[in-house]
Write a structure and sequence with these properties.
By secondary structure, the chain is α/β, with parallel strands linked by helices. The protein has a domain of 197 residues: 3-Layer(aba) Sandwich (Rossmann fold). 38% of the residues lie in helices and 21% in strands. Strand 1, helix 3 and strand 2 form a beta-alpha-beta unit. InterPro entries: SAM-dependent_MTases_sf. This is Methyltransferase type 11. It comes from Streptomyces sviceus (strain ATCC 29083 / DSM 924 / JCM 4929 / NBRC 13980 / NCIMB 11184 / NRRL 5439 / UC 5370).
Length: 285
Amino acid sequence: MTPTLVRQHLPSTGETSRRDLGARARDWSEIQERMLVPLYEAVYERLEVGTGTRLLGLGCGSGLALLMAASKGAAVVGVEPSSPERLALARERLQPEAWGTRARAGTRLVEGAPGGASDAGTAPYTLVTAFEPIGCLAGDSEGLGDLLAAATPLAERGASVVLVGWGPPERCATTSVLRVATKLAEPLRGTGSWRPALRDDLEEVAQRAGLRPDGSGRVSCPFGYADLDSALKGLLSTGLFDAAIEATDQAQVDKEVTEALHPYQRRDGTVWMPNVFRYLVADVP
């Protein structure tokens, strides 16, 4: 079975659907992805990412985390199993022409399973990252487990693996908005429906993958947007509302998410929601 992350649930057939997925990938790249920059920075600082790092990014999306690692001198390879639209944007960011003389040899982006990131001519990876936060969609930990099973054989013994999840619901203001997804998706009640993050989500994934936990941390990642429209586009780009859209319709989801955002809109029109994300560092035995 091809490893997948539970993320892109909207139908991908038809010209309208392709345009929708492309627009949503652009919203992710331009609005939402930057919300996790404090997390990327904290992880890279803790693990001293630099010129000696050979990084494999699972679920690399539109490539911002890879770009940040590459700017520190790391050799990076990204795998995106579920969104060719995001991967196309990552290629734009990481193509050699955008780097000039700073381009790093070995930078690659792979669509599909991590096995495509294997190269007999290169050394094993020293760091594997899975920055797509788990703990909010039913079934997302199983999808991450499949990715890890395919990726960890490509890493050297003792390599670090970083898993990321949402923090406690009471520490995440966005939780109250995400509950809209649960309410509207109630008729489906299956994989892809939002659920509150659990304390041991990351440890359970690491245990099933045969990894050895070696520390964890929490990072403040507030979600800040220029206005309600920007907040709506950013949140919908995550895929966390896909099941709600499938169970109802786009207009209903847009209306209820916008209403849920109103308490977080400030007088100047901006939207601000404090959140905490958690990461776990584990070692490949």
